[in-house]
Amino acid sequence: QYNLETEKDPVVIVISTTGTGDPPDTARKFVKKIQDTTLLPDHFAHLQYGLLGLGDSEYTFFCNGGKTVDRRLQELGAQHFYDTGLADDCVGLELVVDPWIDGLWLALKEVFLLQKEKEGMSSDVDAVSSSLSAAPHVVHELNLSSEVQNLKLEDGGVRNSDVLTQKLVDINLVGSVGDTEPSLVHSVPPVSQSALNIPALPPEYIEVQFQDTHGENPHLSSLISEGTTFEVPVTKAVQLTSEDAIKTALLLELDIADTVFDYQPGDAFCVICPNNVNEVEELLQILGLTEKGDYFVCVKVKQGTKKKGATHPQHIPERSTLKFILTWCLELRAIPKKAFLRALVECTSDAVEKRRLQELCSRQGASDYTRFIRESNVCLLDLLHAFPSCKPSLNLLIEHLPKLQARSYSVSSSNLYQPGKLWFVFNIVEFPACPTRAVSWKGVCTGWLAELVAPLLHPNKNTLDTKGGNPSTEKVCIFARPNNTFHLPGDPSVPFMMVGPGTGISPFIGFLQHRQKLREEHTDWEFGETWLFFGCRHQHRDYLFKQLKCFLENGTLTHLKVCFSRDSSTAEVAPPKYVQDAIRLYAKEVARILLKEGGYFYVCGDKKHMADGVSDAVVDIISMEMEVDKLEAMKVLAMLREAKRYLQDVWS
Ligand code: FAD
């Protein structure tokens, strides 16, 4: 739509990061284009831009999509008209996004004014100003590192009209008498006694009409824009952990034989999952809509809405039942954003509850929001329990709850080894009860899958034997999430090392199955050595794949190193606890394979602690073996990553 080659107006770029620091699919073509090395350093000299990167600092390459574009545009002569913002989902995107957007209006205004002046049309600036009059009065200097201080929550309207100078609420009304500790529902001074700066009420833009109960809900495939979906039966479910293990890991087998779904070992795929049925029922009840659950709802953009650029949310069908929307379309467990809290204030009748909701979305209550909403993982249902007089309308939920995302899983099998069968492995995610929630919860997808396959989990069937498989009526809807790099080396003679503790072992089972089959089929090929570092808590509770020994015995796996972090040992020299400790013991081999033999190094599993621990160990090994300082060693590791020989597939 825009031709950056000639664009004279300021350009705003908002870009997320995916995979291993890659730009999102929709930006790939663009990034590739600007990375063309034949472009001259003044290629974008005419361009002024502001960039907002969205990322998660728990991943190694934080905001790398944004950083890559920013760096390259700078190299090509483009100018910032506004400071780059890098928002971190780990602490809350809004901490940077909100002030960044606020400051953007002023920056745009300035750039337009300057442009007009240059064009000698300074008399026309009033028109520009008035076109921006809806913009907030912003803090002039935006210092993104002290974003909380700079949070400017008023949005639209005249500056001071949004400042609510409220009658001080008697704190005894907010919590139990004598309660001096703040909580989700209770505030203490100074917040409880402050005048509050609260955000402007977001304009409503969705209209829902209840129809009748006739018709059919859309197919789940219509919810997905990323490609073809496949509805496939679950043919096997195996519990890989013992009953006394801390986490429960399940392996599921899907029958993909009758589909064109294809994958390579190392790929991940997505499972479309519903919200928990009890939570949906509870929400219907709180909203007073239990009777309407099976009614079809027509969702439209409200005529004459003040919301700029309001469009029909892509993840909501134009016509489907209320239950369908709450079950398949909206992430009910999402942490409510401040704008949502602001909207909920208007649906709350009790004055004390109202005040607390105002506090939680106000500038003065920013740290309460972080502590009692974000860090406590509070969701809509928790709020509705805590603030019983809050009765939001359905359109508000549709406006503010994000899309229920499909969950990704790494394939744990090889199509060559077991054609038509796809394995994957997951831990059932469990959240214990807490002050804001009386009951424990399971993860949306893993909890649902566990319940779905419970009938298949008969103890006698608890085997990984690939033959047979139970005819099952349970089906799941999946679609591909191809991974372009986390694959076996193209040349089978190249050696490689795999590091996969816990469920991180999953893709490596696929690698090994594949490798075993290749070895059987091509006896004349040369195969490089293979190493696997696996770790778990206890040898007898969560050693997910004892069958690894078979790969070792038949030569598919050359070295298997396993460590147990919670088993006590009587050995004189304590054995390594974690995979990163085990890797350090084999420093010479790691250095030989990575630095001398052009080998590959794969890491899969827990994104923060394990993946960082492993890369630290590898940096130390490189530094020691090459006799270079740590900085040099980090550069070598960066080169290995760049060459796609140090590969990570990590998740939380
Ligand atoms: P959710 O309900 O989505 O909850 C998960 C997260 O939400 C928690 O970890 C936590 O951060 C947060 N959360 C939500 N509510 C609370 C609360 N009340 N208290 C505390 N925290 C809360 N997983 C595997 O097990 N195996 C795999 O092979 C695998 N492969 C993956 C591959 C890729 C490329 C990616 C991106 C992810 C992969 N994952 C894998 C992770 C998987 O996609 C899911 O995130 C995971 O299974 C949890 O999904 P869920 O819906 O059950 O949990």
From TrEMBL:
Domain Flavodoxin-like: residue ranges: 1-105
Assigned EC number: 1.16.1.8
GO cellular component, one term: cytosol
InterPro entries registered for this protein in UniProt: CysJ-like_FAD-binding, FAD-bd_FR_type, Flavdoxin-like, Flavodoxin/NO_synth, Flavoprot_Pyr_Nucl_cyt_Rdtase, Flavoprotein-like_sf, FNR_nucleotide-bd, NADPH_Cyt_P450_Rdtase_alpha
FAD-binding FR-type domain mapped to chain residues: 227-489
GO MF annotations in UniProt: [methionine synthase] reductase (NADPH) activity; flavin adenine dinucleotide binding; FMN binding
Keyword set, alphabetical order: Amino-acid biosynthesis, FAD, Flavoprotein, FMN, Methionine biosynthesis, NADP, Oxidoreductase, S-adenosyl-L-methionine
Record-given protein name: Methionine synthase reductase
Species of provenance: Phaetusa simplex (large-billed tern)
Gene that produces this protein: Mtrr
